[in-house]
Amino acid sequence: MGSFFTSTDLFTMFFILLSTFLAIIDGKFSEQYTETKATKHVDKITHLHFYFHDIVSGKHPTAILVAGRRNSFGSTAMIDDPLTGGPEPGSKLVGRAQGMYSMASQYDGSLLMVVNFVFTEGKFNGSSVSVLGRNPVLDAVREMPVVGGSGIFRFARGYALVKTYQYNIKSGDAVVEYNVFVMHH
């Protein structure tokens, strides 16, 4: 019988324990910032425009069903979808949409989206934006909240405006246009 923990799990637990131990030795578990110290930044607003390619068909799908029956309440897909600068599949790759979505409504086509947009190009390379929200896919334009980010987008907040650019009813593949407005430090 195998171990319950992988080497990555053990490393993570060791790191957490070490960090906690060092914080206790230092005598600080948390630190209060004064208003001056906390406000030494200027928020920026960045507009990101890209296309999300959700491929559920063929030999190399980027979204796979992990629970339930496709397009029924509770169905859940894990995704690693390409993000491109244009709507064509051969457009320049700018990142990946990694996460999951679930059919969250029994009555309409609303998804719960839990997605990190991980950027791999230009000045945003290595940074990500996290979206968590309701996506009523039958609406012409949907709005979802940006709830966080990393790298350049640390402390991110904002919103994504989403439009289906193309949907193949036979295959289930979709190309979705994203306009994301991110406020960050």
UniProtKB/TrEMBL annotation:
Main location: secreted
Transferase recorded as keyword: no
Signal peptide range: 1-27
GO cellular component: apoplast
Pfam families xref list: Dirigent
InterPro entries: Allene_oxi_cyc_Dirigent (IPR044859), Dirigent (IPR004265)
Keywords noted in UniProt: Apoplast, Secreted, Signal
Subcellular localization: Secreted, Extracellular space, Apoplast
Presence of keyword Aminoacyl-tRNA synthetase: no
Biological process per Gene Ontology, one example term: phenylpropanoid biosynthetic process
Function text: Dirigent proteins impart stereoselectivity on the phenoxy radical-coupling reaction, yielding optically active lignans from two molecules of coniferyl alcohol in the biosynthesis of lignans, flavonolignans, and alkaloids and thus plays a central role in plant secondary metabolism.
Similarity annotation: Belongs to the plant dirigent protein family.
PANTHER family, per the entry: NUCLEOPORIN-RELATED
Assembly description: Homodimer.
Protein name, as recorded: Dirigent protein
Provenance organism: Forsythia ovata
